[in-house]
Every structure is written in structure tokens, then in C-alpha cells.
Amino acid sequence: MHIVVCVKQVPDTKIIKINPKTNTLDRKSAPAILNPYDAHAVQEAVKVKQLTGGTISVLSMGPPQATEVIKKSIEIGADRGYLISDRAFAGADTLATSYALSKALERIGKDIPVDMVICGKHAIDGDTGQVGPGIARRMDIPPVTSVIEVSEVNVKEKTILIKRKLTSGYELIQAELPCLLTVEKEINEIEYAPMPNMIRAARYQPIIWTVNELENVDRAQLGLKGSPTVVGKMFTPPRPEGGKKLEGSADEQVKQLMDLLMDKKDLLTVQSTN
Amino acid sequence: MSLEEYRGVWVFIEQNDGKVEGVSLELLGAGRKLADKLEVPLAGVLLGEEIKTLSNNVISHGADEVYVIDHPVLKNYRTESYMKAVIYLAEKYKPEIFLYGATPNGKDLASAVATDLSTGLTADTTMLDIDLENRLLEASRPAFGGNIMATILCKKHRPQMATVRPKVMKALEVDSSRIGKIIEEKINLNEDEMRTKVLRIVNDVTKRANLADAHVIVCGGKGMGDEQNFQMLYELAETIGASVGGTRDVVEAGWLPHELQIGQTGETVTPKIYFAIALSGAIQHVVGMKNSEFIIAINKDPNAPIFDVATYGIVGDALEVVPKLIAQFKEIRSQKGGEISYA
User: Fold this and answer.
1) Please, how many CA atoms are within 13 Å of residue A41, restricted to the half-sphere of its CB?
2) Which residues of A touch B195 (CB under 8 A)?
3) ipTM score here?
4) Which residues between 16 and 75 in chain B have a beta carbon less than 8 angstroms from any beta carbon of chain A?
5) CATH topology of B3-193 equal to that of B205-336?
């Protein structure tokens, strides 16, 4: 069983600031972290490997410092790490990103054929969730998104049973391997990294490929050039007028609010239950 | 690619068990405006098994045309089969704009279709408009999880695709007198060639019903300080018969499970009354609640953007104000000896 997990280094959006003058992201303001959903993807690969045995590879695309998120993945339990890093990949939207990653997966698969690809539901800096299904299409394997449980892996039959989250409830899906899953956070809890993993991660040097080391690449489909979408403008939406701020002490404000609410007979009434 | 060959606005009509999802009707409302600006027809794409009768519903909500593919393999949503059907239609009829609801299935389908059509897809948009001069779709969405919107354009590829957040756009009033054209298409789909099977669908409404259908919501932010303080929101909610939700920060801090997150990456809600407590009102959050009927904001910071969308605001420390609110509601209930009920 060879599982490849796609991971992304992202700015921690909880901390990130926007430069109000340029309306751009002040990347220096936020620490770079392993996308939280991807951590769950790696953890799920570890759980599957405990059942089936095999190898877990992680793949990332980004600047050289993205090796940090590969090391983090090794800590969680991945065996190998690959980073594709090249100016040619820069500025990619989701379509160009899935193209580059699928080319890297092609190369990884030459060493050991890939049985399963796992991605996080989405990256917290883009929130799109479009790259995972895109990779699956390019590899011509079935995608299953919003996975909340891997219920069964049958290595001999090459099938997998998965619970997929729906708007209300879930569905149980049987998929043929190889397939691609994107996982929700609730699929597992990230476990504390065992000491040997941490030591291994600290010393680990991932394999880094430039575009020249990938095969049959159509450069027109990479990076900014290969991206059909562009950001037209960034703007702060017009502030709505807003309502009325109440005045006075906390007690007075609460009192005013209660009067206003109790007047709203079209919204609520207090009825005697007797 | 000759862009001029592509004409018309399409909406993917998501149906489950023969029932059209609300977001698809909302998109027909939004799509109608875009189609009118461009002076082109608005079409719905309806896939499934024995679903043709739903076409009238699509037309009465604003569509001029409905493309229907009825096939047993399309009974339940699956990426593989639905993708094939949608791509077949899009390649044959060439729409210039194609919208999908940002539901699990809509996002899944749109991502796969965009890859095969090698076109641009904007995720989770909350505003749609047309740049008429350049005949471009302007799809805007909150970016960076923060206080800023980005407008995404797809200049050289067609169709221009976007997924759109549920409950952000407005459906049109039903007009049963509308007349539209139903175009039935056939494609070859073979169950044996499908690599995924839906074995069972389990409806579990308990988690979702809480927020999506709640009349009153008490939503707390990081300003509650810690998990223990956050508990007082449950007491308020219990007193007034509300459901509790939280911001992204609160969920990421682990005070609430993800399904109770309100905002761009969580639920979109439209209750009668919404209490926004100790939360600043980042766009990320506001897009998920701004269509609530009566919004009450409580925040220490008088400049917090949440006051811009609030109907009434209390400037004050939530830890001080919320207990007073609870006390007041309890008093009113005991005076009148009853429950609070909502219209």
C-alpha cells in the first residue's frame, strides 16, 4: 500500500494581518504552519498504514522553506517527503496547482505505484477545496471528498469503504483503489508524535524537484501562465450603515434592549404555559 | 478558444431524493440578473433518475431552459457519472457562465468539471456581477479568512465557473405562469464502469438542524476569553430557547465542534434573532449571518465592524452584559409564567 498525502504550508490565518494600504497579505506577520486539514490527512494515512502496512509519502509544492511542513508530516508518521519547488510553479491557481502536483505524483508513482492519495478538505489560506478533485481527474482516479471515516480497506480486492459527509448526514461509499480522498477535521485526532519520529523529522531531508526533474510537463499549464483565474481587485466591502448603538450603563443598555425586544411582537412573545 | 461561441448562464440544479436544494433556487435568482444583464437565456441543468417533473419548478424560479438527463446511473450523486453528464452538456451547448451551489456535492462536481474543461473556477463566492464591457463574470469572495474581498475573473477560458455560498443569494418569487423550454439529452453511462458505489445514505439531521433551522442563535467569539466563560452563552441560549454557534476562532480553539461554526467556512444561518457576542465581525463571519432578521451585537470595542451589521448594539463587556441579559429574560419568563415563543 503506497499512500501519498498532499500537504501545503500556509500562513496561520488566525494571526495574519492585511496591509491596509496595499490590500495584500502581510506574510511576515504570520508564522507558516502545516495546513491543519493536511495534518489530519497525514494522520489518517498513518491509521490506514497501521492496518495495511506500506509506505506513506508526502508531497508539497512551495518555496524551499516548505520543507518544514514535510518535516512536520514525518513527525506525524510519514515515511518520505517530496517537495516540488521552482519559479515556474509560482502564481498557480487551483487548476495549475493540480497539474503540477499530478506531474509530481506521476514521478513518485514510478518508484512505487500509488494506491491512495489523501488531501485535506481545503487549505486555510485559500479555502477552495478544488485542488484535491483536480488531481484525481488528472490521474484519472475517482475522488471522494469530505471524508469523515475510512471504514475498511481491502488490499486484496483493492477496494475501500468510506463515509462521506453530506449537507445533512453522510453516505457510505465503496471506491476502487487507487482513489483520492479529501478529509474533514473530524476524521481523526492528531496524536502526539512519538520520540523516534521527532528525531527522524529533525534530521530528515526531503527530496526536492525542480520542474526539470518532472517528466512530460507542458510548461504552458504551470504557474501564473497556466492559471485561468486572476484576481481582478481586492476591496473592503462598503460598510453597511449599521443599526443603533444603545447608550448608558450596562444595566440601562440591557433594559433598553429588553424593551425593544418585547415590543417586537412579530418576532417573539412570552406565553404562559399554564 | 473562441469566447464568442459561448453564450448563456447555467445553474447546476442539485436535487436529492427528488427534492431541489434551496441553494439551486437561490442561484436561479442570482443567475436571472446576470442573464438579463448579458441578454442571454438562463438555463438549469437537472440530472438524476426520474426527475423530469422537477423542470417546472426550475422554470417557475426563473429559468428559460432546463437541460435534463434522466438515467438510472445518475440516481445518487457521484463525481464520475455527474461529471460526465455535465461535461457532455457544456461541450455541446457552450454556456459562458456556469454556477454551482457551494455544497459538498456542488463543490466536488465543479472542481472535477473545471479540471476537464481546463477552465477557471472560483470557490465559495458571495457576490456576483457582470462587467458588461468585457462580458466578464465578477465573482467575489472573502479572502484570507479576513476582512477583505477579492474579485476573481476568468478572462480567457469558458465557461466562467463559480461555486456560490448557500443562503447568500435570494430566490425569486415563484411564478407558475413562466414558460420555458425543456431539452432532454441522452448519454451512455454504464454502472459497471463506475469506480464508486453509494451503498447507503444516512440522514442525520440532529447536528445540522440546530443551526440551519434555528429561530434564534447565540453566537460567541474569542472575546469570551476562555472556554469556561463561553459556557454562559449556553445558559443564555437555554433561557431563551436558542441554539449556540461560534466563530472560526472559537472552533479552532476547540471550544466548539466544527459543525457549530458560523461563517464562510462553516454554516450560513438566517435566524429571526441573532446574538453576536464578543466577536468582532470579520467578513469571514459576517457572510454567514448577515441575512438574519434582527441582529444584536455585544462588544467592548465600539468600532468593531459587527456593529455595522447589527440592528442594535450594546457596547460593553460581554462577561458583564450577558449575565444581566440572562437575569432579565428569566425575570420576564417568571413574571409571565411561560416560555418565549417565536413568530
Assistant:
1) 34
2) 141-142, 175-176, 179
3) 0.89
4) 21
5) yes
